[in-house]
Amino acid sequence: MENILREGSAKTPSVSFDSQSGILELKGRSIPENSLEFYKPLNDWIDLYGQTPCDQTIVDIKLEYFNTSSSKCILDLFKKLERINLKGIPVSVNWYFEQDDEDMEEAGEDYQAILKLPFKMIEVDEI
Amino acid sequence: MSLKKIYSLYRTMEEENIIFSFNGVVTADFLTVILDIMETKMSYLSETSKTKKKVFNILVECLQNLYHHIDDENDLKRDLKKSKSSIVMVKHDQESYYVQTGNYIDKSVVSELDERLIKINGLDKEGLREYYRETLDNGAVSSKGTAGLGMIDIARKSGNKLEYEFLEIDEEFSFFSLNVKID
Known about the structure:
The structure holds two protein chains of two kinds. By secondary structure, chain A is α/β, with parallel strands linked by helices.
């Protein structure tokens, strides 16, 4: 299957979904007015990837911030990955947040509380 | 507007420490430009990146609320100015930032919005977290991509109670004023 490689913009994150390495990354900010448009292809990709996933999938979330419209789409994306994990094929999430950014740290904890996916919280100087 | 009014309006905004103001219809293009201007303006302020992020984030949610609000098909039949126009201001005094918005809303939605805001204002930090998680996990997404999370998120990030008021305008509309304080 084809990988997704997208540049970031002022309102959308850069995306790198690699089906060969099993490394999926979202980086930057996610504040589009209508997130469904942006996230639908990503969620569709994960549906397809889920049919023949790598032995291990690593999800790197390096978001500076995201709007509430995106938060729902990101949850849907995680739920698809959760299904892969529940089948016994490990998926883990690395949740990056900037030092002192409690809002982003809490956002990671929110997902962690909802999902059955291992989360690693990683504090960095700058995303 | 008389020329004197220009000066008096300018003075009022200076005295009120308004660092940004916009009135009119918040379209997708304007939204992008407003965020761009605010980001540049804030980059000049000697503020922690934490505060800047909070202000920016809350502004994004407020603007997108206004944007989605005008996106309503019913409004096409209505008094355009009233149903779509709004005001957005960012104020900065010694201690805090304030994101302030005002827009006309259909009278029929006043009580529902009021109830939601009363609920939000009645919750503490922990309660807001629970309410947010519950809505995130169970709430449905509208075709516009909104998920009913905006106000909860604004309250959560601001760390203060949301100040708001509904002003009765005519049989059809009320004016909804919102003041979000960010410490």
